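A common beginner's mistake is to predict each chain separately and then try to dock the pieces by hand. The better habit, illustrated here, is to supply every component at once so that their relative placement is modeled jointly.
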Amino acid sequence: LSRVVVTGAAVNTPLGDTLDGVLDALVAGRSGIAPWRAFAVPEVGCFVGGDLTGYDARAKAASLRPSLPPEVGQRLERLLRRIPWSAQLSVCVAADAAIAARFWDRSPDPDGTAVLVAGHNLSPRYAHENWKKFQAEPDYLDALAAVHMPDTNHAACVSEVLGTRGAIGTVGAACASGNYALRAALDELAEGAACAVVVAPIYEYAPTTFQALGLMRATSEATAGEAARASRPFDASRDGFVPSHGAAALILEPLDLARERGAPLLAEVLAAEGGSDACHRPPRPSPPDQAALIRGVLDRAGISAGELDLVSAHAASTPAGDVAEAEALALALGEHGGTVPVNAAKSMLGHTGWSAALVEIALAVAQMRRGEVHGTANLSERDPAIGLRLGDSEARSVRTVLKNAFGFGGLNCVSVLRSVE
Amino acid sequence: MSRRRRIAVTGMAVHTPLADSPDAFLAALLAGKSAITRWKSVDVSRCYAKIGADLGGFDLGARHQELAERLPAEVAARLGRLMFRLPWSPKHAVLLGAEAALDAGLSQAEMADSHVVVGGHNLGAIYQEEGYARFAAEPAALPVAHELYSLDSSQAAVLSELFGSRKPAYIVGGACASGNIALQAASREIVHHGARRVVVLGPVTEMSAATLHGFALLGALSIESFNDAPELASRPWDSRREGFVPAHGGGALVLEDWDVAEARGARILAELCGVGVCSDASHLTIPNEDGQSRAMALALRRAGIAPEEVDYVSAHATSTPQGDLVELRAIRRALGARADAVKVNATKSMIGHSFCAAAVLEAIAGILQMNAGRLHGTINVDRPDPGVDVDVLAGGAADWPVRVFVNNAFGFGGIDTASVFKRVDA
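With all components supplied together, the output reads:
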């Protein structure tokens, strides 16, 4: 079976739309969380988040164009005039990752290039707005709603811009979607695909989403003045996750083909595996099951717990989730549970939902490349139940990373990456 | 990976307005019955779209009671809790999952050992819009679970919970081709992830007035000529076809590692030999002969089956002016001269277009027909389009031995897929 490498990675978050820039911000301990601007927040909802409202996709496309073949640039700009905002962000981040992968230097076979989108129900705000239009007058509905509403539109738009003709589809499991999409990409490549483009669009959120999350007490109740301190994974005073916009894309190729075409070899994906808590509601994270999943993926990757250099935690800043994850890591890693460095990108980025695992994988790849890890912000008083090695940003050689994702509804998936020797 | 694991189909379940069990489904299809009526459970007073296949009358409670008696006690208890809490489409999900598991003869331990793959997305429009309406009236009236049940992923989560399974559970999507993509993902669970069995769900897509109106505005639906004779509206390949007819419908399949199925003495219904998925590199809704034929060719290549071995094609054929003929040309391109020897039919002429579930329902229909040695007709083909140059069974059901069939599904966004099934004794 061929080894699979990441040849390109890109992100778009409230801390910036370049991978290096976002890592710089994380290393400096900057927070992307601010008062929420995208829509008026209902009374019980969360008030703060990582908000990309106003992000100018057309300006981004203009900055990418010099690096794109002319016909790709044309398709990108043409599409940006037609599709909803969140899909615009998807095509931009995919083009960005493709540029990083030098996708057009001896391009992978388009018939063998897959586009997989991580997530589902990506556009609740677009859906809500269109419902309101329909209520006012049915024909006010966006005439292309039937094209733009389905989640698959993100995959189709990316395929159109990049000109891919291989497999296409979406893969979703709530907050574990990114890892599940990565897992599907590994299968696609194992069955002979030349390349897989994995795109995690932003999760748009809607006023109803905020209201429902607030009613469920899933999100932080931090006020506007406390925005930067709202997301505090593993801290004793954490009170829920902080919703955030964020998108990511990875280009994956078999190592031999990537080498052959001279693509950057950013990291190797060793394995991704999924599991379930067998309980959709209420959230009932099960440390033994999460630990079994982590041990399983390490086995599949052929590495031991002692070889891990970094755990990029799921750590969404929820009271129950963070402590369960810490317990699972202690169980899974045994004697190494307290010594392997762990960080929580969500402490500064917030929770980008379905894209979180992929955003954080892209950042893990950047940390491996740079030999520097970011810390976990807002750890003013660590929860005594958490025995993990958490710390500040530091220069550190990182060869092997575990990426956890434990999702809403009890859907889990974890992955392991390693630097390319 | 030279010696692939073989994939057995061991259980099936269907919920369509035409029939609520595989046997009844086959009988109704062979009898040429239509499921299309005026919408009753959806308020279409403000829409152009008036007709569809409506599952609103399905007696969920009665089906639940019936299953509760047949399921292992713990699973039945979980089913009861789930039926009490879930919205409409996920209720169908857990019933379909339970029915397929029982059809496959799975024990409680075997259910708990099942991976779960759901093929579909954007499934809960009615549930979401009810939330929007309550929110508009009074924000605090939004159901607490609104966010959880607005997520399609909950359909996978509830099946895991029903079965008590800690195995991988997730959803995959490809618009109207989602079912075939789910079959591919499920077979990969067995080939690459050590699954002994996978429950595959083709979920029931909720149809809201706004969803239906969106399709009507796109010009995709039959909204003109057949509102007073709904059973005539879905007429693939007929000269008077004018668009697809949206449908409620869901199905579930149990796929198993062939050796595992044999070892437990399971009744094997068919072999899933291969799936092909490819893209037209276009987000628009233009059917593409090249992409469709590539999907069929890829599925056959993966199945290790030559075009000459195909006996029957279960067409995507949604009754749209463009799509139906493009598909026939694609079949000819993929099968070559064999196109003159195969039979082709359109299940959607009777059950309408059930979106994400279509390919699962049509895989089930195909397996039932293959095992019966008799194919259903395509109804309403009164005057075949002059472009029809293969046998689309316009004259009704016919005896026809099938060793291998191809199940096509093409989705909005240039998503082309095909799956290939083989008879067990073949």
